[in-house]
Amino acid sequence: MRIDQLAAIQAPGIELWRGGLLAGARERGAPAPGDWLDAAERERAARFHFERDAHRHRASHTALRHLLAGRTGVPAPALRFSAGPYDKPRLDLPQAPAFNMSHSGRWALIGIGGAAPIGVDIEVPREMDDLMALAERNFTATECRELLALPEAGRLRAFLRCWTRKEAVLKAVGSGLSIEPGLFEAGTTPERRTTTLPVSGQTCEVTVISLDVDSEALAAVAWVEPGSRHLAF
Prior knowledge:
The chain is α+β, with helices and mostly antiparallel strands.
């Protein structure tokens, strides 16, 4: 398993890492998929029907432990996790760094930050017959118009750009889909944007930016702004 740090982005103290999930030879010094996992992680891997998916689960969680151990100084097998009310994982450590992980296809994307809650999402493009129907259910009217204004051949990447941005925002807040993605603007273009969404009857500010993980995969990272961190779950 190979783990590479991505180029720095305009995000406050956030490091982004790419982990390869394909089964194959292990690089010298790299952890083997399944190293250090706790009983819950192993049990979850065992529930996958296909070994390919079980391997990707083991590999991504091993990579996450490897990186968090390097950041915290706690041995990877000793790291303990808990979950927020909508199942967002967190480290059980004083002043633990914020982190988040996503995986799609051959890649895992891992973000590690500081105090600000963060979210990441990655998608490898695949053909979608119901693209505009999905957009109409999950995007704002403005975002749908932006998609329709594009040539049909360019809509898939723009759709996934917006989708990953919305996922990253919701993961940063830790709300899951308890907040509808159509309630806030994330945009179909990659530039940095601060958006607002309703959380517990208040307005929460989250900044999101897009990035390319390789020549195909699209991704986004988001973080909750300082004045809104008390709203994150």
